[in-house]
Amino acid sequence: MDEDLLVSKMGTIERCCKRARDEYEKDPTTFVGDITRQDAATLNVIRAWEAAVEMGDYLLGEADLGPAYDEREVITLLADHGWIDAALGEDLKRTGEFCRSEWDYQAAPLPALVTIIKRGLDDFDAYARALLARAAQQNSAANDADGAPAGDPAI
Hints:
The protein is an all-alpha fold. Helix content is 77%, strand content 0%. Helix 1 (3-25) runs antiparallel to helix 3, helix 1 (3-25) packs antiparallel against helix 6 and helix 3 (35-62) packs parallel to helix 6.
């Protein structure tokens, strides 16, 4: 598995979550009336979601865990195969529903965005760390099986 790709996606998730959080935390009392900050926060939540799905989809393919037919199924398959906690998967799928409503040009409720910023952004971090840790375990096990020293990319 290409851990550099996973680290890159994790970096994208971290940057997007920070930006969404920063837009809200500039002044939570004026966030409701500032459509520009709401748009910036929403866009960054969507970007974090997309990076999380891409990260998961890549791992599903690499680990041969089956094809996912939509974003929610990526999360479901990862939870079903023990790559992430089932409760985390359910929380992420709710965030995905918010993103889906935005993609379909429906008005997602502002309280949902605020809830995601306050509580859901940490789910992205937990998800990315869990996938990266599991991928590292898989790589280590594959290196051990090949007889190459773990962690030695030259061999």
